[in-house]
């Protein structure tokens, strides 16, 4: 993907600059401008290989992001009309409708429920590196802007909106992946489910949401990096991945880690959110999140068992060789990092 130097790194720099501008700004006009700069830098990366599926995904992504930007600028204009300032900290002048429109615009850009329909279809036609950027870096600006909403305004309407979006995202992430056989669409629904957990974590503490986001990004980098390194960009089905035996098993274990199977690393982030929110008033929402995570874990386990049975027929366990390279070491850390964290926590508690 990065063979056309220096243009690919130029687009990455533009995309990163737009995200940093949006996060570091306190005016809605500069926040909107930063999101648009990020979109301008990301769109050329989507159509880099000039395939039909990438062009279709890029057009869908552009339409959705333009819709989210229109909601964002419309909500900021409504706040400007009431307060005569672009400052995002002027919450006393915010109208209810303007607040709802702003949250809707950021939710559309992020892919939260009920604006999640575009994410699986867009990710299904993209290469692995573009999927990685869409699942990780493109979440930073909208997610941290939503976190600023909660830090500056603790109104019941905003809390109810976050509870609805988090519960719906978790259920959609569980139901949507049940009948999926495409790896990209499966990871897209997994991303929607994790967004629900992040939105719910933001209701209780900022650091828990950030820790959850960092763990999700770490596992996603290993997952998409492994799929990209296995040279399976044209293969859609999980059973057709052409890779080494250790890489196949690590990919499946990373899927289980994304699903939150204990004691893997993905379980630690969910355990953290459950611990933080266990004393809160939203226990029913937490129960819905756990149910959605169990549904996600169900289809991950189904994929793992079907893959393992087909794998055991083809290979003998005696003849397995472990290819120790950089990706394998990173995958091992991501898979078994949860075991180390649990052992350390138990040791300190004793």
Automatic annotation (TrEMBL):
<protein>
    <recommendedName>
        <fullName>NADH-ubiquinone oxidoreductase chain 2</fullName>
        <ecNumber>7.1.1.2</ecNumber>
    </recommendedName>
</protein>
<feature type="transmembrane region" description="Helical">
    <location>
        <begin position="185"/>
        <end position="205"/>
    </location>
</feature>
<dbReference type="InterPro" id="IPR003917">
    <property type="entry name" value="NADH_UbQ_OxRdtase_chain2"/>
</dbReference>
<keyword id="KW-0679">Respiratory chain</keyword>
<feature type="transmembrane region" description="Helical">
    <location>
        <begin position="26"/>
        <end position="47"/>
    </location>
</feature>
<keyword id="KW-0496">Mitochondrion</keyword>
<keyword id="KW-0472">Membrane</keyword>
<feature type="transmembrane region" description="Helical">
    <location>
        <begin position="157"/>
        <end position="178"/>
    </location>
</feature>
<feature type="transmembrane region" description="Helical">
    <location>
        <begin position="211"/>
        <end position="230"/>
    </location>
</feature>
<keyword id="KW-0830">Ubiquinone</keyword>
<feature type="domain" description="NADH:quinone oxidoreductase/Mrp antiporter transmembrane">
    <location>
        <begin position="26"/>
        <end position="295"/>
    </location>
</feature>
<feature type="transmembrane region" description="Helical">
    <location>
        <begin position="251"/>
        <end position="276"/>
    </location>
</feature>
<dbReference type="GO" id="GO:0006120">
    <property type="term" value="P:mitochondrial electron transport, NADH to ubiquinone"/>
</dbReference>
<feature type="transmembrane region" description="Helical">
    <location>
        <begin position="115"/>
        <end position="137"/>
    </location>
</feature>
<dbReference type="InterPro" id="IPR050175">
    <property type="entry name" value="Complex_I_Subunit_2"/>
</dbReference>
<feature type="transmembrane region" description="Helical">
    <location>
        <begin position="88"/>
        <end position="108"/>
    </location>
</feature>
<keyword id="KW-0520">NAD</keyword>
<keyword id="KW-1278">Translocase</keyword>
<feature type="transmembrane region" description="Helical">
    <location>
        <begin position="323"/>
        <end position="346"/>
    </location>
</feature>
<keyword id="KW-0812">Transmembrane</keyword>
<dbReference type="Pfam" id="PF00361">
    <property type="entry name" value="Proton_antipo_M"/>
</dbReference>
<feature type="transmembrane region" description="Helical">
    <location>
        <begin position="59"/>
        <end position="82"/>
    </location>
</feature>
<dbReference type="InterPro" id="IPR001750">
    <property type="entry name" value="ND/Mrp_TM"/>
</dbReference>
<keyword id="KW-0249">Electron transport</keyword>
<keyword id="KW-1133">Transmembrane helix</keyword>
<feature type="transmembrane region" description="Helical">
    <location>
        <begin position="282"/>
        <end position="311"/>
    </location>
</feature>
<comment type="similarity">
    <text>Belongs to the complex I subunit 2 family.</text>
</comment>
<keyword id="KW-0813">Transport</keyword>
<comment type="function">
    <text>Core subunit of the mitochondrial membrane respiratory chain NADH dehydrogenase (Complex I) which catalyzes electron transfer from NADH through the respiratory chain, using ubiquinone as an electron acceptor. Essential for the catalytic activity and assembly of complex I.</text>
</comment>
<keyword id="KW-0999">Mitochondrion inner membrane</keyword>
<dbReference type="GO" id="GO:0005743">
    <property type="term" value="C:mitochondrial inner membrane"/>
</dbReference>
<dbReference type="GO" id="GO:0008137">
    <property type="term" value="F:NADH dehydrogenase (ubiquinone) activity"/>
</dbReference>
């Amino acid at each position: 993907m990065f063979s056309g130097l220096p243009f690919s790194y130029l687009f990455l720099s533009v995309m990163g600059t737009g995200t940093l501008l949006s996060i570091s700004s306190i005016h809605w006009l500069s926040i909107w401008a930063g999101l648009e700069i990020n979109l301008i830098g990301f769109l050329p990366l989507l159509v880099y290989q000039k395939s039909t599926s990438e062009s279709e995904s890029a057009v869908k992504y552009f339409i959705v992001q333009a819709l989210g930007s229109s909601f964002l600028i419309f909500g900021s204009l409504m706040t400007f009309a009431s307060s005569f300032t672009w400052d995002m900290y002027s919450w006393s002048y915010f109208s209810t409708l303007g607040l709802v429109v702003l949250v809707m615009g950021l939710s559309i850009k992020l892919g939260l429920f009920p604006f999640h329909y575009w994410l699986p279809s867009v990710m299904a036609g993209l290469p692995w590196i573009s999927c990685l950027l869409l699942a990780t870096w493109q979440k930073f600006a909208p997610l941290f802007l939503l976190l600023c909403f909660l830090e500056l305004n603790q109104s019941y309407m905003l809390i109810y909106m976050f509870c609805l979006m988090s519960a719906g995202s978790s259920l959609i992430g569980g139901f949507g992946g049940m009948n999926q056989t495409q790896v990209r669409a499966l990871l897209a629904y997994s991303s929607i489910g994790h967004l629900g957990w992040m939105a719910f974590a933001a209701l209780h503490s900022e650091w828990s949401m950030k820790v959850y986001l960092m763990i999700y990004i770490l596992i996603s980098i290993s997952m998409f990096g492994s799929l990209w390194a296995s040279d399976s960009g044209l293969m859609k089905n999980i059973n057709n991945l052409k890779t080494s035996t250790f890489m196949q098993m690590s990919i499946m274990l990373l899927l289980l880690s994304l699903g939150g199977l204990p004691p893997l690393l993905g379980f630690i982030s969910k355990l953290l959110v459950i611990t933080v929110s266990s004393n809160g008033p939203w226990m029913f929402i937490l129960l819905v999140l756990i149910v959605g995570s169990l549904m996600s874990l169900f289809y991950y386990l189904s994929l793992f068992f079907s893959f393992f049975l087909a794998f055991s027929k083809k290979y003998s366990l005696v003849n397995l060789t472990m290819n120790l390279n950089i990706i394998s070491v990173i995958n091992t850390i991501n898979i078994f990092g949860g075991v180390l964290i649990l052992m350390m926590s138990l040791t300190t508690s004793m």
